[in-house]
Amino acid sequence: EIVLTQSPGTLSLSPGERATLSCRASQGVSSSYVAWYQQKPGQAPRLLIYGASSRATGIPDRFSGSGSGTDFTLTISRLEPEDFAVYYCQQYGRSPLTFGGGTKVEIK
Amino acid sequence: QVQLVQSGAEVKKPGASVKVSCQASGYTFTSYYMHWVRQAPGQGLEWIGIINPSRLGTTYAQKFQGRVTMTRDTSTNTVYMELSSLRSEDTAVYYCARDNSGRYLDYWGQGTLVSVSS
């Protein structure tokens, strides 16, 4: 199975700062099959990015995704208070579908 | 609008089974596969498997093979996930999530907490 490793585990930043989250795959994945989700405490995950770089409906343009092969990145250009949450990457280029372990973005 | 509404919390004893439901609305039920994902307390997301509501095809993660069964009822637009031989490690929130084009999960249910304790 494809293992996704997210780094860092925790990112401590202030509102207005830029956040860069990494997701590394144990083997190459087509970018079409990479997605990112945001999860807040007590809530279900929410789709942010699909196809590595396409924003889901209603997602603000401060969220962007990039990458190919084994390295993918989620960038939040300027953190808003509501962006402090846990973020997961996911791949389904090869079964089984797998998720990364998550990156928590916390207020510094 | 697309909605996935799951059944309520469950408390089970070790060795028992649990069946969680997920009722879909706002789209053509048989046109989209459905995933089941779980999240243990304080942990990340774990994929359980996927069901094709149209043809009842299923694929399960190897870890759950032999213990999980996914079914559907097209008359009520509902999918079900049954997990047997429960143990304490199965305590988690279980989510259904709609598959989009075999690439990502675009809508999620609200989650169902399953607690396993003697």
Explained architecture:
The complex is a heterodimer of chains A (108) and B (118). By secondary structure, chain A is mainly beta. Chain A is 0% helix and 55% strand. Chain A is built from no helices and ten strands. Chain A has strands spanning 4-7, 10-13, 19-29, 34-39, 46-50, 54-55, 63-76, 86-91, 98-99, 103-107. In chain A, strands 2, 4, 5, 6, 8, 9 and 10 form a seven-stranded mixed beta sheet that branches. In chain A, strands 1-3-7 form a three-stranded antiparallel beta sheet, with no helix packed on it. In chain A, β4 and β5 form a beta hairpin. Chain A is globular, with a radius of gyration of 13 Å. The mean pLDDT of chain A is 97. Chain B is an all-beta fold and 118 residues long. Chain B is globular and about 40 Å long. In chain B, the strands form two sheets. In chain B, strands 2, 4, 5, 6, 9, 10 and 11 form a seven-stranded mixed beta sheet that branches. A four-stranded antiparallel beta sheet of chain B has the order 1-3-8-7, with no helix packed on it. Chain B starts with a strand and ends with a strand. The A-B interface holds A 32-33, 35, 37, 44-47, 50-51, 56, 88, 90, 92, 95-102 and B 35, 37, 44-47, 50, 59, 61-62, 95, 97, 100, 102-111.
Tally of helical segments of chain B: 0
Oligomer: heterodimer
Largest interface chains and counts:
A-B, 22 and 23 residues
Q: What is the helix/strand order of chain B?
A: EEEEEEEEEEE
How many beta-strand runs of chain A?
10
Summing up helix and strand content along with how strands pair, one would put the structural category of chain B as mainly beta
> What Rg of chain B, in angstroms, do the CA atoms define?
13 Å
What is the percent of helical residues of chain A?
under 10%
Proportion of residues in extended strands of chain A: over 45%
Overall pLDDT of chain B: 97
Largest sheet of chain B: 7 strands, mixed
**Coarse shape of chain B:** globular
Distance between the termini of chain B: 40 Å
Secondary-structure element string of chain A:
EEEEEEEEEE
**What spatial form of chain A do the alpha-carbon principal axes imply?**
globular
